[in-house]
Amino acid sequence: MGLEADMNDALKQAMRDKDHASLDVLRMIKTKIMERRTSKGFTGEVTDEIVREVISAYRKQLQKAVEEFQKVGEKGVEEAAKLTFEIAYCERYLPKGLDAAAVRALVTERIGSLGITDTKQVGKLLGDIMKTHKGQVEAGDIKKLAEEILAPK
Asked: What is the pTM of this model?
């Protein structure tokens, strides 16, 4: 059973349980998947990988929105809490990310194996890591770590 079918089952269950918070998240994700499916230039099937990409992009949007609502202060607390729930719900369908120590070890190992010596070559490192660990690490985190490791001392 694919990821999209799992989400359809979860949607039906949320309807039966009258779980409005989960319904909102699932409906939004399904809308984003439909937008992707009907986008110009898209052909073929919606695979689990595409569904994960859509969910990941939506989670990033939510994370940025939470930051904005937190800046507002007390007025944004309720909305930030709702978005935090949605982020946690999205993470059910995404692969578990690597912790900070594992990311640092991965970046250090790949820098050595690729022979990268300065920050101008970070793009090469980024491409290599994102091929093998897509969805488990953030590109921004890799770039920041690589620049920190490669910075002249």
From this structure: 0.71
